[in-house]
């Protein structure tokens, strides 16, 4: 059982585990910035809505009012591109997690290696670049179902909302089109941060959710630099 503290979304009023929400922090200059890793010092405000919901709340002035109450001050500045800043920060957190798991030896790439791991039951999460071919996806999805004793189910890999160029940079390899995780804990950690990112940006007709062969999606991973780092680096 997770011991993640419960926090309240300032927009919806829903109470969720802290890891399921996104933290906003008040920078020293009064700007509201994303703190998706929940590491910035001081008071924070939490949101658990989609990017579209946040944009609507901003346009109607609801976000400013909610933030003023949360920080007990009206002296704050909301960047016009705050929703985009959050989406980019969530993407970076996910790709950083993927890179960490790759350096730990938990990621397998290359269609033949992925298929072998999938058919032998060693694959715990499968993902595809947004620009991967449909036929390539289907072949590996089928191998994963076979190795997971899930033939006839809708188990399939996750089509990420980034192409092979970005995926390759994240993994430090060339032309990464597909990938898989062979460690169950690594698969859980990546799936958690993926879920939060995908929920915020909302459904896309080219992005297909999957379930891991061994578990349900869970809470989201946190930890890392605060909003100053994210803004300076563009994440």
Automatic annotation (TrEMBL):
Region described as Disordered: 212-235
Pfam families named among the record's database cross-references: YlxR (PF04296)
Domain (YlxR): residue spans on this chain: 7-71
Matches recorded under InterPro entries: Ribosomal_eL30-like_sf, YlxR, YlxR-like_sf, YlxR_dom
Name of this protein: YlxR domain-containing protein
Lineage: Bacteria, Pseudomonadati, Pseudomonadota, Alphaproteobacteria, Sphingomonadales
């Amino acid at each position: 059982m997770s011991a993640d503290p419960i926090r309240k979304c300032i927009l919806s009023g829903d109470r969720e585990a802290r890891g399921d929400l996104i933290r906003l922090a008040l920078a020293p200059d009064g700007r509201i910035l994303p703190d998706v890793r929940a590491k910035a010092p001081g008071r924070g405000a939490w949101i658990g809505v989609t990017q579209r919901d946040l944009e609507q709340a901003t346009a109607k002035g609801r976000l400013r009012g909610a933030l003023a109450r949360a920080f007990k001050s009206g002296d704050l500045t909301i960047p016009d591109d705050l929703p985009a800043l959050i989406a980019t920060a969530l993407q970076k957190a996910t790709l950083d997690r993927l890179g960490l798991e790759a350096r730990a030896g938990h990621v397998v790439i290359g269609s033949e290696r992925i298929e072998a791991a999938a058919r032998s039951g060693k694959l715990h999460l499968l993902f595809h670049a947004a620009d991967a071919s449909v036929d390539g996806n289907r072949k590996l999805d089928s191998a994963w179902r076979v190795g997971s004793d899930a033939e006839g189910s809708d188990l399939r890999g996750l089509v990420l909302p980034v192409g092979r160029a970005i995926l390759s940079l994240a993994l430090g390899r060339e032309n990464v089109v597909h990938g898989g995780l062979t460690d169950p804990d690594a698969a859980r950690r990546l799936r958690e941060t993926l879920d939060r990112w995908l929920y915020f940006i909302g459904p896309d007709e080219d992005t297909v959710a999957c379930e891991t062969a061994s578990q349900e999606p869970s809470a989201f991973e946190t930890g890392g630099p605060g909003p100053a780092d994210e803004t300076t680096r563009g994440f």
